[in-house]
């Protein structure tokens, strides 16, 4: 019920994670269809980039204004910070406060004067502004870092590299919000270089009890996690896509015309392969560089056919080897019989 600075930065991290989830699963998915020239009807979805900008914008973001208040000379309080938010963020569609001129909740007594509300992707959250300035200004000053760096214990020394006299920085230490923002940026940069898989956990009830299913709670989670848009994109799109070269290399054994070698372009080989297998045209589409397969059952069928073909090829190889081995043994025995017969006739 009471959300302060700690919950604010946690929710900021959740917004950034939701943003990268949107980019990797919805935005990038639809952009790839357009890039590959696949016929596609764009599906609308909520992009929370506007909320992330409200928090992290370098000029007008909430974290930037909080840092500005912490560095400003004179009397600085949580109320002055809230006044600044009301001035700068008054027109933002996802920011609400009792003093905001554009707020639709001017008469909402449930929103106290010392609070502001942000409409996150997961819903509206009200924050108590009390403590924001002090918690953001909770810095580890330079002399303390230098003292810890001089410790004899190697672990303690490694935890405070900024205390190294060779790396002395005369600038004011970064605020807690700035440090967290930099950490989130590093996390996002790391995630964008990976191919993440998402597991979405749905909480069936607030009591953490078995055999209780709160339908309203589950529907709320499904909406704010973006699962509806994700399912719509997946169902309208293609379950599997792969460049033509590796696709042909994997399944070329299923067609006599492409096995063992296909001399033409990889796309032409895939077309011949799919026509030979009799896969319905509505089950796949040819992009500029990839083959797109709509339903997983088509892919499962290809894998089953490939597995059966591998078994047949293994049986064929085994049969040829056994025939060669028996024939080699027969020819050796025949040669030995001739030698023995010739020597017998010589001494007979």
TrEMBL record:
GO terms for biological process: actin filament organization; actin filament-based movement; endocytosis. InterPro entries: Kinesin_motor_dom_sf (IPR036961), Myosin_head_motor_dom-like (IPR001609), P-loop_NTPase (IPR027417). GO terms for cellular component: brush border; cytoplasm; microvillus; myosin complex; plasma membrane. Keywords: Actin-binding, ATP-binding, Motor protein, Myosin, Nucleotide-binding. Residues 184-206 are annotated as: Actin-binding. Signal peptide: none annotated. GO terms for molecular function: actin filament binding; ATP binding; microfilament motor activity. Belongs to the TRAFAC class myosin-kinesin ATPase superfamily. Myosin family. Coiled coil: none annotated. This is MYO1B protein. It comes from the Eukaryota. Residues 1-307 form the Myosin motor domain.
């Amino acid at each position: 019920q009471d959300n302060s600075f700690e919950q604010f930065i946690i929710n900021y991290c959740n917004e950034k994670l939701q943003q990268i989830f949107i980019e990797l699963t919805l935005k990038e998915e639809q952009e790839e269809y357009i890039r590959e020239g696949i016929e596609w009807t764009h599906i609308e979805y909520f992009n929370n980039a506007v909320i992330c900008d409200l928090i992290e914008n370098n000029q007008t973001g909430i974290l930037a204004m909080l840092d500005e208040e912490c560095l400003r000379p004179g009397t600085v309080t949580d109320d002055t910070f809230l006044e600044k938010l009301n001035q700068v963020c008054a027109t933002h569609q996802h920011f609400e406060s009792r003093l905001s001129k554009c707020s639709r909740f001017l008469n909402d007594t449930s929103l106290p004067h010392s609070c502001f509300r942000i409409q996150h992707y997961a819903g509206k959250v009200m924050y108590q502004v009390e403590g924001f300035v002090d918690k953001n200004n909770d810095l580890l000053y330079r002399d303390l870092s230098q003292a810890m760096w001089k410790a004899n214990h190697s672990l303690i020394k490694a935890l405070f590299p900024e205390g190294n006299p060779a790396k002395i920085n005369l600038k004011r230490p970064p605020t807690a919000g700035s440090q967290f923002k930099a950490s989130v940026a590093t996390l996002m940069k790391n995630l964008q270089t990976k191919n993440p898989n998402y597991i979405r956990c749905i909480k069936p009830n607030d009591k953490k009890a078995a055999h209780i299913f709160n339908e309203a709670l589950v529907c709320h989670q499904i909406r704010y996690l973006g699962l509806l848009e994700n399912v719509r994109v997946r169902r309208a799109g293609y379950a599997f896509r792969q460049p033509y070269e590796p696709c042909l290399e994997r399944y070329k054994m299923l067609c006599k015309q492409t096995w063992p070698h296909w001399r033409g372009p990889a796309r032409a080989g895939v077309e011949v392969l799919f026509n030979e297998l009799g896969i319905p045209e509505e089950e796949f589409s040819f992009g500029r560089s990839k083959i797109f397969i709509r339903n997983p059952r088509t892919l499962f069928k290809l894998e089953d056919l490939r597995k059966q073909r591998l078994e047949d090829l293994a049986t064929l190889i085994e049969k040829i080897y056994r025939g060669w081995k028996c024939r080699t043994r027969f020819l050796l025995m025949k040669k030995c019989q001739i030698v023995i017969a010739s020597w017998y006739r010589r001494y007979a």
